[in-house]
Request: fold
Amino acid sequence: MSEEEFLAALTGSDSDLRLAVEALRATGQSFCLIGGLAVNHYVEPVVTLDADFAITAAGGVTKALVARGFQVQEFPHSINAQLPGSRLRLQITVNSRYAAFPARAVAGKVLGHEMPVACLEDLVQGKLWAATDPARRASKRAKDEADLVRLCESYPRAIAQIPTGLIAKVDEMRQKG
Reply:
């Protein structure tokens, strides 16, 4: 089974991630993958039905997504989209704290689709913001912490970005040196 077939089996659509990347490229604005799917670029994959992107500006995003069949909801700092019949949820973040991420993105291939992925340092920073956001559900914050542990296991240099005392497993890694 190819990565694309795996994604289609999970989401119920064989084109949603490809169409999302096409739509973001069509805007002409810099963007990159962030969140759990971006973590999967760096370490062994874990299943997620969320595709999170950071983009420099919202101009044209909604129009490009709608033109490709997505249902879209706009919020002050994000655009959420989903293809009818698909379980993949897109969240395109237009937030000033993520504004520099696309410029530092690396070329990546995620679930068979080539796209820019947040560089490791930015991905860790984004996961830290998510893991410490008291407004997020506890289960989401726990997943963010687990993603940080996974990244630190594979990339020990990331440990330096995690504040001491925040994640016990990372503190253990720090002590083992």
Summary: The helical segments are 3-11, 16-26, 35-42, 61-67, 101-104, 120-131, 138-154, 168-176. The radius of gyration is 16 Å. The beta strands are 31-34, 50-55, 71-75, 78-82, 89-93, 106-110, 113-117. The chain is about 45% helix and 20% strand.
